[in-house]
Specification:
Layout lengths: L8 E6 L5 E7 L17 E4 L13 E3 L6 E6 L11 E4 L5 H10 L32 H14 L32 E2 L1 H13 L4 E3 L3 H10 L4 E2 L1 E2 L9 E3 L5 E3 L3 H7 L6 E2 L3 E2 L1 H6 L1 H4 L8 H6 L4 E5 L3 H16 L6 E5 L2 E2 L16 H8 L1 H11 L6 E2 L2 H30 L5 H12 L8 H8 L4
Parallel strand pairs: 3-5, 8-16, 15-16, 17-18
Antiparallel strand pairs: 1-2, 3-6, 4-5, 7-9, 10-14, 11-12, 11-13
Helix pairs in contact: 3-4, 3-9, 10-11, 11-12, 12-13, 13-14
Length: 453
């Protein structure tokens, strides 16, 4: 980015021993980005306060290429002097880390895209997208911006690098950070009693090692966004008047009483599913009314759940229970295994690796499925389920069935022919069961032989 007013500075690089390896006069500051289209919304360029290379130009202005704007060079602890050029463009409206830097340094936020990830085409005062790029899909805008930067002679180089990017589970496209108005809960305040309850032993995890996951989440908890733009859910209990003033109430009648003579419109958003689920231990018992069921059944005893929702559900139930009921919702959290696919991946419709138990039952029988899950289940250990395992336990069950049928028939042979000895039956059954590796069946063998006798 060129310095404003044609200013220059002496740029110096040194090695680990302090020896000068590069000294030159520059009239720009170099930045690197993997999302060139977001540069149109930059509010600043940040450098680390200890980075001596840029000390002469901290506080000066640079010209934002392709835009008729000047933005400041600021210092912040976020940039890593040893990564890239050490200078970071700050686009607070489209990056989580940049947003935090912008908030700390009072840098303006400029949303560049609409809800379809196209460059904004509206005429609002805060739309900083130049006319040439308005309405373009983000990746088309990226190509156009890279070409225009190169044409201006401002491109240093282009590199091919693998980067981490968030993809939508269903859409399979790159998720774009995007500023919207949402409702948040002060989760840090709610988390403190929930942390104390587990640390004091009022609620325990089994196996105990899962309390570390619980502590890790709650010790580092962030404000909780509880509003969602979905069709179904508990609607946010907030109404707005013509001027946009909010009124939070239990009902529309109550909200209207808070805003006499005004026309109200309810917030169309719904509550996060986990917010609604967090109320489950007491909302199902008649809460907020003081019902006999609530008095009898709250708190509960044991919650059986999977480790993957310790934060999403267990922690939220703890927070809500202690906040509204002033008591823990359960004294024990039993963490069971997750049934994964044979490669250890979590089963998901989007991945296409879900094994339908009804299909397994149709093919191998209910007993085979039950025995597979029972044999593999262990507290805190995930199950890698494959059809081959179910088939194996079906075969084992068939051996049990055949042995039982044989023993039953042999018993009646013995009754009809007294010379047919029990020892003969036992030897044959033992031989049959020798194929059932990993099981101790001696007691069961004798028991089968003595059926009915």
């Amino acid at each position: 980015y060129p310095l404003a007013n044609g200013e220059t500075y002496e740029y110096v690089e040194k090695d680990a021993d302090g020896n000068v390896t590069l000294r030159e006069t520059r009239d720009y500051i170099a930045i690197a980005t993997t999302r060139p289209e977001t540069m149109l919304g930059d509010g600043a360029v940040a450098v680390h306060p200890g980075d001596a290379r840029y000390a002469p130009i901290v506080g000066k202005l640079v010209h934002l290429p392709l835009c008729d704007r000047l933005i400041p060079i600021i210092t912040d602890d976020y940039p890593d002097p040893d990564f890239g050029s050490g200078a970071v463009k700050i686009t607070g409206a489209h990056d989580f880390n940049d947003y935090a830097v912008a908030m700390r340094n009072d840098i303006p936020l400029y949303p560049l895209m609409d809800g379809r990830a196209h460059m904004r085409a509206d005429d609002a005062p805060d739309n900083m997208v130049p006319a040439k790029y308005r309405g373009l899909e983000r990746f088309d805008a990226r190509k156009a911006i890279v070409a225009d930067i190169d044409a201006l002679g401002l491109m240093i180089r282009v590199e091919d690098k693998k980067i981490m990017q968030p993809f939508g589970d269903r859409s399979k496209v790159v998720i774009e950070p995007y500023l919207t108005d949402q409702w948040f809960v002060d989760a840090k305040t709610l988390a403190q009693p929930a942390l104390t309850a587990v640390r004091e032993g009022r609620t325990r995890f089994a196996p105990e090692n899962w309390d570390k996951t619980y502590f890790q989440w709650l010790d580092n908890i962030e404000p909780w966004c509880i509003s969602r733009q979905l069709w179904w859910g508990h609607q946010i209990p907030v109404w707005y008047d013509e001027d946009g003033a909010p009124y939070c109430a239990e009902s529309e009648t109550q909200a209207q009483a808070m805003a006499p003579g005004k026309t109200l419109m309810r917030d169309p958003d719904v509550l996060d599913t986990w917010f609604s689920s967090a109320l489950w231990p007491f909302s199902t018992l008649g809460w907020p009314d003081d019902t006999p069921e609530l008095a009898k059944y709250y708190p509960g005893a044991v919650l059986v759940t999977g480790f993957d929702i310790i934060f999403f559900w267990v922690a939220r139930m703890m927070m809500m229970g202690l906040h509204f009921q002033k008591d823990i919702p359960f004294h024990t959290v039993y963490v069971h295994a997750l049934v994964r696919d044979e490669d250890g991946k979590k089963m998901s419709k989007s991945l296409g690796n879900v094994i339908d138990p009804l299909d397994l039952i149709d093919k191998y029988g209910a007993d085979a499925v039950r025995m597979t899950l029972t044999a593999m289940a262990a507290m805190g250990r995930d199950i890698r389920l494959s059809e081959a395992r179910v088939e194996g336990y079906r075969n084992f069950g068939t051996k049990l069935w055949n042995a039982a049928r044989f023993a039953e028939n042999a018993y009646f042979i013995k009754v009809r022919e007294p010379g047919f000895a029990d020892s003969t039956i036992r030897e044959i059954v033992r031989e049959m069961f020798s194929y059932a590796d990993g099981f101790t069946m001696s007691a069961k063998k004798d028991g089968i032989v003595n059926i009915g006798g």
